[in-house]
Design the sequence.
């Protein structure tokens, strides 16, 4: 076992550089996801169909229909976040997942190939605060 851990100083340096690169990449990706105003991006497959800002309290909801491989999916973007209200897929997991409002959240209707990603800053990054 210890023989497998042996390596030259160059191997250790290369490993250290790789680990630092991975950590730096993680922070850059997280910063890009959380930059800018909160937006819902809607995709069909790899194609970006639309990008909408998340409405603030009191602003009207955005309701739209998106054509997927199986049929139309109803998408609602309101003050609570984005959600798929109805979908032609049989499992309905995307509908049951409810509203999502945090940057980095993803809603996917895999059979219909509809994807909603949330980007931008969120008002609070905490799920709960306990005292």
Sequence:
């Amino acid at each position: 076992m210890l023989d497998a851990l042996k390596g030259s100083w160059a191997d250790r340096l290369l490993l250290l550089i790789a680990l630092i690169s991975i950590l730096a990449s993680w922070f850059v990706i997280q910063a890009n996801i959380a930059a800018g105003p909160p937006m819902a991006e809607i995709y069909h497959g790899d194609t970006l169909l639309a990008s909408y800002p998340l409405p603030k309290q009191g602003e009207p909801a955005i309701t739209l229909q998106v054509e997927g491989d199986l049929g139309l999916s109803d998408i609602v973007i309101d003050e609570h976040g984005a959600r798929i209200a109805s979908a032609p897929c049989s499992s309905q997991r995307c509908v049951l997942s409810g509203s999502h409002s945090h940057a980095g959240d993803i809603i996917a209707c895999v059979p219909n190939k509809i994807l909603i990603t949330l980007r931008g800053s969120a008002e609070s990054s905490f799920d709960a605060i306990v005292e």
